[in-house]
Request: fold
Amino acid sequence: MRNIKMTVAYDGSDFSGWQIQPGKPTIQGALADIARKLTQEKVFIQGAGRTDAGVHALGQTINFKTNSALLPLEFQRAFNALLPASIRVLGAEEVERDFHARWSALAKTYRYRIARERIISPFEWRYVLHYPYPLDEDAMLQAARLFEGQHDFASFAASTGSGEEDADRTTLREVYSAELVRQGGELIFTVRGKSFLRYMVRKMAGTLLEVGRGKLSPPFIRELYELKDRSRSGPTVPPQGLCLVSVEYPAAWWKVPAASAAAGEPPVKLR
Amino acid sequence: MRNIKMTVAYDGSDFSGWQIQPGKPTIQGALADIARKLTQEKVFIQGAGRTDAGVHALGQTINFKTNSALLPLEFQRAFNALLPASIRVLGAEEVERDFHARWSALAKTYRYRIARERIISPFEWRYVLHYPYPLDEDAMLQAARLFEGQHDFASFAASTGSGEEDADRTTLREVYSAELVRQGGELIFTVRGKSFLRYMVRKMAGTLLEVGRGKLSPPFIRELYELKDRSRSGPTVPPQGLCLVSVEYPAAWWKVPAASAAAGEPPVKLR
Reply:
């Protein structure tokens, strides 16, 4: 079987999240429907991260196995012709058999946008948290840096559900970088890590807001790692400000060489 | 009665257009509901332009008459607190009694966006026409210039309905400027004029596309003014690419001086 990898962007506003749910519009469901139409096979769409309802993606990554002879570019064009405009396939390539969108990922980057203007554009509300009230941005910046490193993020886990990575039950995670920047009228919180617990990024952003409001102090972030108590951290902020920006994988050796990509063609002896 | 003028922006995606229609979500209806709540009066919201379903606005302008003592800034804040996030009041001021959002307007500017990239962002499809096929942009530019000036735009009128300005039956209109520019991956058509017939800007954009595809030649625009036949011009392109950018009015003399804005206060004799 061939293994097809795709980079997918979506506006999550009109979907009940990534994961297939009967009778509800989901990203995974929309992709699976089209993969099945195109291949006449029961295709399973593996995503790198399971985004929640209302969460967006600029660089979600998926893979699926198929016996279809369609070339990656043909898959991409067919998906884009059949998918709703809210989901776009930005790239497609054939990869080695053992490539797995979730388990092969080296790092994922999520971004949370907080709009600080008094009035926000009617074209932006689907993509930001509107918070026009006073915030101590310096304290928030200090706190954001304390998310970096390997910590027990139990205080930032969902109350129910298994978390984005449910194969292990540990709440230990490594955050490679956590940055807060001011860009125009927005505060943008960007985190990069190997994997995240469910709601973890939104709980981190909610905790930063509590720090900004003076309800929590920056060093309290460190105490939260000890407390392992999600009721002591900030709230889970709304989903629409969150976006899965990119997923990183080991470099080009995953790609199947172009020769073998000409699937079905028997080798021709050179004279 | 006091006369309140407001500048309003909206994402028209989720509305059945500007004009109140029973049982349907409209911009005028949403604004009128809130004005009535705030004033306890039967307020009529006058708009500068009646945008169709799916059309957006960055600078729609409205006015309404009221006996309420609320200051313009109080009106603005109350509207923004009660309106859906897809409609925002960007500014409010008290104006002279005879100011009329539609009849006082000197000029309106509309913009139509055509996305030329092969794949468009899932965050942009609500705001552009996606046209990734070949176009002769030089011919379109030539044709766009021929829209400028006073012409009979009967070939660019709606087949039914009375047109945006229905008080007169003439199809004679003056276009102050018509520009086509390339900006990033987009072609942007911007027209400024005193008033427009219903669908006129979308028919103009549709005609430019026919010129770009080589189906019509630029000088044919002039013939269309003579033909007065809407079946000979291009199609009415979809609404989502269209935006009412701004409405211009005579300068500051419309504004009521701050002193008289302190409504209800009796004059105080200076000692």
Summary: Residues 32 and 205 of chain B are 32 Å apart (CA to CA). The interface with chain A takes residues 9-11, 56, 80, 85-90, 119-123, 125, 127, 130 of chain B (CB under 8 Å).
